[in-house]
Design a protein that fits this description.
Number of helices: 12
Radius of gyration: 19 Å
Oligomer: single chain
Distance between the termini: 17 Å
Strand content: 5-15%
CATH architecture of the largest domain: Alpha-Beta Barrel
Structural class: alpha/beta
């Protein structure tokens, strides 16, 4: 991806459909036909369970009970990476549909980062001793440097494997960083945050990305800009305050891009509203994207939805949830194309 080409489109990853191969094929094919430049494999299950469940089957110290994860002792990261079937899905898809590859500029894969994974792990026994929960009811793995560091190794393994598969954008999704880094950092040092992210993405040879939800603090912005990550991916449609956080100077003269969240991805259902009422109009999106271009420069921007669409499954059901999501992406692409 060259900056002079500018204004690419992608998606964050998750979709409001049941987790099966047929739905993955459906979503991925739809994204290509809609004109997404860098389609991501469809994430149809929890972003933490996707990676922690298979890991818990490989290490005895990590146990899954009633969809919660418990770590009882120190562990070794398995030498063979887990959850590679999602990257393999992309490879197999284009082996079966080589004609569709010419329609896109590249591919994207997402994996959950070490801070978000360890945030979901509850500590038990000796490794929980002496830890006083601050924002939890019980000690969590994210509070302990050496555990987070081991999960950075785990993430690096998967990212490296995705890189070997030839995937162009590999995103380390870290929604929890918005909570951990505000005016100050919870649990860790600035250097630890930067070094951990850099380790997690160190196997990526093309474009590394990091996705953080919510409002970004100036402190978190500065930390992310100090990392080796090439794409900073954030919500702007839901959190327009982020327009005040990022400036063109942060990306100008660098190899970094800003992925601009352009359509809402989670919202409540309102009585008497039609499906179309939840979908941003093309004219509105044109103005929104134009605002981003004027503020950041088209050469620095990637256009995408705010976040993943999985929450729409619970709010609207699969049929309506998917229709809303796919219409939003369609209008986003149409709006951008009308500006090129």
């Amino acid at each position: 991806m060259n900056k002079e080409d500018g204004l690419f489109t992608t998606v964050v990853g998750s979709w409001p459909l049941s987790n099966n191969h047929e739905n993955m094929l459906r979503v991925f094919t739809d994204l290509i036909h809609l004109g997404i430049d860098f389609p991501c494999y469809p994430q149809l299950l929890s972003m933490t369970h996707q990676f922690l469940s298979p890991l818990s089957e490989k290490i005895t110290q990590l146990e899954e009970i009633d969809q919660k994860f418990y770590l009882y002792n120190d562990f070794e990261v398995p030498k063979k990476p887990s959850a590679l079937e999602y990257g393999e899905f992309i490879v197999n898809f284009f082996n079966d549909h080589p004609d569709l590859k010419a329609s896109i500029k590249g591919t994207k894969a997402c994996l959950t980062g070490p801070f978000t994974l360890t945030f979901e792990i509850i500590l038990k026994n000796e490794i929980a001793e002496g830890l006083k929960p601050i924002i939890f009811e019980e000690p969590r793995a994210v509070m302990v440097d050496w555990i987070v560091d081991k999960f950075a190794d785990f993430t690096k393994q998967i990212a490296t494997a995705y890189n070997i598969m030839g995937i162009d954008i590999i995103s380390c999704d870290e929604p929890i960083l918005g909570l951990l880094v505000g005016k100050k950092i919870l649990f860790h040092s600035e250097d630890f945050i930067i070094n951990t992210i850099n380790k997690a993405i160190s196997g990526i040879r093309k474009l590394s990305s990091i996705h953080v939800c919510g409002r970004i603090s100036p402190y978190l912005r500065d930390l992310l800009l100090k990392t080796d990550v090439k794409i900073l991916d954030h919500e702007f449609s839901t959190n327009e305050q982020n327009f005040k956080i990022f400036e063109k100077k942060h990306f100008q003269g660098t190899d970094k891009f800003l992925a601009l969240g352009t359509v809402h991805s989670k919202f409540v259902r309102t009585q008497d509203k039609k499906i179309s009422d939840y979908v941003e109009h093309v004219d509105f999106l044109k103005k929104f994207i134009k605002r981003g271009i004027e503020q950041y420069g088209k050469e620095n921007l990637i256009i995408k939805p705010d976040c993943g669409f999985l929450p729409l499954k619970e709010t609207f059901g699969e049929k309506d949830g998917y229709e809303i999501a796919i219409r939003k992406v369609k209008n986003m692409v149409l709006a951008l194309n009308s500006l090129k």
